[in-house]
Specification:
Number of helices: 10
CATH class: Alpha Beta
Number of domains: 1
Low-confidence stretches: 232-248
Bound molecules: iron/sulfur cluster
Structural class: alpha/beta
Radius of gyration: 19 Å
Shape: globular
Helix content: 25-40%
Strand content: 15-25%
Length: 284
């Protein structure tokens, strides 16, 4: 039944068909993540004119170009900074950020921390493929231990980053994780994040089949996605020494949630109160 509904959803109505063919490699998980996002937006009856998608640099960052909405392809690591200004100035828009693990956690890591802390009403989708795919396969903050990349030819020796733990610790209103293997579950998680009145951080474990998969001899794209369902997957969380959720297991679904006041609402209320007080005093 769920698969029937997935088949019923016509992704083309949210795509810029004139941009096809897309640039993604065969089997890349990012296409599945994009479909899940568009499916979630469709189920929310999202008006495309009221949708803004901001993305940074990298394979994940290219996805905004294919979405038939108001889209912004911005500088490396700064998608959350641009999106924060947009969400604050245009509360009538639904603002979505699409970012990769390098874009969001390395050069953009500081923006992520403060976006979580600030709690503006926007949704950040971080597609984690454990590598800088577009720029040639360099190590990223989520590359698992011992995995090969072009900059770790002897295997990665750095501990990897648990992005969801970081987002939860920094106060994000909604934190969740899902794998691309579970498309309907991923769509539901994204929908829940989109409906959350505050900052939602969603990590999607999405395979880079061509660069990361090939380098580490992880098999075909089908074999790679099947690893997401088994303990064979070289997950960024299997080697985390003190995983805050379930050590050595991949915690998915909604991982943290709070109902802190949304920043934009609090800001606008404060501005209205200051203006009212000034008017009472006879000023402007
Ligand atoms: S390089 Fe990797 S992440 Fe980028 S499009 Fe190809 S498979 Fe996808």
């Amino acid at each position: 039944m769920i698969l029937d509904k997935a088949a019923d959803f016509d992704v083309r109505k949210y795509l810029r068909l004139e941009m096809m063919p897309h640039f993604l490699c065969p089997g890349c998980g990012h296409g599945i993540a994009l479909r899940a996002l568009l499916w979630a937006l469709d189920e929310l009856d999202q008006d495309k004119d009221k949708l803004a998608v901001v993305s940074g640099i990298g394979c994940a960052g290219r996805l905004s170009a294919y979405i038939d909405a108001n889209t912004f392809h911005v500088t490396h690591g700064r998608a959350l900074a641009y999106a924060s200004g947009l969400a604050l100035a245009r509360a009538d828009l639904r603002v979505v950020v699409i970012s990769g693990d390098g874009d969001c956690l390395a050069i953009g890591g500081n923006h992520l921390i403060h976006a979580c802390r600030r709690n503006l009403n926007l949704t950040c989708l971080m597609l984690n493929n454990e590598v800088y795919g577009m720029t040639g396969g360099q190590v990223s903050p989520t590359t698992s231990a011992a995995m090969l990349t072009t900059t770790t030819p002897l295997g990665n020796s750095e501990p990897s980053f648990d992005a969801c733990a970081l987002a939860a610790a920094a106060g994000a209103g909604f934190v969740g994780r899902e794998v691309t293997y579970h498309l309907p579950k991923l769509k539901e998680l994204i929908k829940a994040g989109l409906e959350h009145p505050g900052f939602a951080f969603i990590e999607v474990l999405s395979d880079c089949t061509e660069i990361f998969g090939r380098k580490n001899e992880l098999g075909s794209s089908a074999e790679m996605i099947m690893r997401q369902t088994s303990d064979l997957r070289p997950s960024a969380y299997r080697d985390t020494v003190e995983a805050p959720f379930r050590p050595n297991e991949l915690a998915t679904g909604v991982l943290a949630r709070n109902d802190r006041p949304e920043y934009g609402t609090a800001y606008r209320n404060a501005a209205r109160a200051i203006k009212a007080a000034a008017e009472r005093r006879g000023g402007k």
